[in-house]
Amino acid sequence: MSVKVELIENLYKANRRSIARSISIVENDSTDSSELLKKIHSQIGQAYRIGITGPPGAGKSTITNHLTKYYRKQNKKVGIIAIDPTSPFTGGALLGDRIRMNEIGIDEGVFIRSMATRGSLGGLSKKAIDAADVLDAAAFDLIILETVGVGQSELDIAQAADTTIVVLVPESGDSVQAMKAGLMEIADFFVLNKSDRPGAEQAIASLQTILMMKDHDEKTWMPNIIKTIASENKGIIEIADEIKRHKDFMEANKLFIQKRELQMKLRIKEIVESKIRKQIWSESGENFLNLSLEKVVLGDLSPYHIADEIIEEFIKRKN
Amino acid sequence: MSVKVELIENLYKANRRSIARSISIVENDSTDSSELLKKIHSQIGQAYRIGITGPPGAGKSTITNHLTKYYRKQNKKVGIIAIDPTSPFTGGALLGDRIRMNEIGIDEGVFIRSMATRGSLGGLSKKAIDAADVLDAAAFDLIILETVGVGQSELDIAQAADTTIVVLVPESGDSVQAMKAGLMEIADFFVLNKSDRPGAEQAIASLQTILMMKDHDEKTWMPNIIKTIASENKGIIEIADEIKRHKDFMEANKLFIQKRELQMKLRIKEIVESKIRKQIWSESGENFLNLSLEKVVLGDLSPYHIADEIIEEFIKRKN
User: Fold this and answer.
1) Cβ-based contacts of B122 with chain A (< 8 Å)
2) Measured between CB atoms, which of B42, B118, B296 is closest to A264?
3) CA distance A70 to chain B (A)
4) Whose CA, among A130, A152, A215, B221, lies 20 to 30 Å from A41?
């Protein structure tokens, strides 16, 4: 174990270098990572976690920036983790990041970290949630987890967030499609950004129709639709108000604890699987696999046979 | 074990109902799945596997359809697995499928299966590769694995394919970006579809520039760029020729066996991880997790502590 006591002490004091160092530790997912996260566990749970997802170009970063400025005026500290599970085809988000850094990155009460990788989306979300824990331990009041919606990551982030916002634009249009695909389940509310563009009213009408179809009583939260023009800073206060309203509703109906319990359960599962993976494919596991490989290529045994053998060998090794 | 001998016998005879039933078994990923795949292992390895990937709307399905018709004229049997790791935002591919079925789906020498899901991309690719084994056992000569490039799935498919084709269009333009993101490594060749559109020559020029920068000697395969207008059936023979040229090159330079070995290795790893996941989260594993949950929510133990306990308990249980 090699996580220094000093590092953790300075992290609690929100020392920027220690925050950056700690996030790098969880990002590298070394043995130090689980050590660090165990140690800081008692200090987390105070920050409110906001998930923001939506298609590329919907204005997620702009909304995050303005929302951050709004919270800063109330003297709240804001941590931002921007997750970019970039496909080779959608390209990166580096330019957006540079602009962002100039606007709010120099503020001492704001900490921004981008996490991007090709492949292994699951792993990326796990690391992002670990990084949120680091910011939580550093006493940030709000943590914004921003992710582009291309696959698994928006579901993972929704599971880790206290309030999840789905940002759409009139052009992404097909809100019916989005609904069918299950965004109903993850959105605590919708933001229709660029709401001065053609098609905005139709987009809202069709969103509303689908929301109406949902069964609900007074103990069920009903997602709202907030209109914004983020580039002109319009509708940002309304977003903050809706986050507050959702938080209050969750607390009043004792849904908050329930949600955190479910979050924790999913998180433990992911940690278990990630650790087991590492243990299996340690040096001796890799060697065993390489030795067995020939038998499969020659056609004597199926990969499913070999898999069984590897699991048996792993269990034996662990005893 | 409950996979009937009959089912497998009929699968080998390429009975359509048995193929469909067998693919459903691997798709449901039940215990029968690994039983079935073990049994058919000795009968696979003859089919040639072609991976086709690219951004949405690049024309992958159209190319697959025409390529299938071309191979059918040579009396080759073609199996198609279309993988759609659909994001809530990109929508589904059902319409395309219906059109496809009308065109080539009624041909006895063609078998088409679409696999789509939200989330768990890794799992989807594994099932697609299992389904390819089923088609291989049913004596299809060629298996086309078609996937939209949004994240992990195109990498998984490239690892499972003998020849991987990356389809681009002039509008997806940013070939430099695509290259940087690592498509160089997975493309055995590129297809520039809709090559009569503006920007085609520039797209090819920039692709070529980047390909030239790659180190190579006569024993390294150099990816080509094939121009097509798939909607007009132009360039399809050229694709088939390039696949053949790649296959011959791989065999002549003994790279083929090497590639299959690597494929098998990655595949075994995925099977092991999938099996272990199932074993851990069996009923007793879930119970143990639920009992531990309270300790985490109360803040006594971190999720990382509980994860260690769950792994220990799992190892004990397996002995």
Assistant:
1) 122
2) B296
3) 29
4) A152
pLDDT tens digits along A133-176: 999 999 999 999 998 765 566 677 888 899 999 998 887 555 55
Note the ipTM here.
0.75
Q: What is the pTM of this model?
A: 0.73
A4 domain-assigned: no
Residues A59 and A178 grouped into a single domain: yes
Q: Are B249 and B222 in contact (CB under 8 A)?
A: no
From A87, A289, A299, residue closest to B151, measured CB to CB: A87
CATH number at residue A93: 3.40.50.300
A183 and A299 part of one domain:
no
Residue B1: is its pLDDT beyond 70? no
The residue of chain A with its CA nearest to that of B36 is A304
Long-range contacts of B260-265 (CB under 8 A, 24+ apart): B260/A297, B260/B45, B260/B162, B261/A293, B261/A297, B262/B159, B263/B159, B263/B160, B264/A293, B264/A296, B264/A297, B264/A303, B265/A289, B265/A290, B265/A293
Q: Using the 8-state DSSP alphabet, how is residue B10 labeled?
A: H
Instruction: Judge whether A22 lies within some domain.
Output: no
Which residues of chain A lie closer than 8 angstroms to B54, CB-CB?
89
Interface contact B118-A303, CB threshold 8 A: no
Nearest CB to B151: which of A85, A267, A307? Answer: A85
Cβ pair A272:B119 closer than 8 A: no
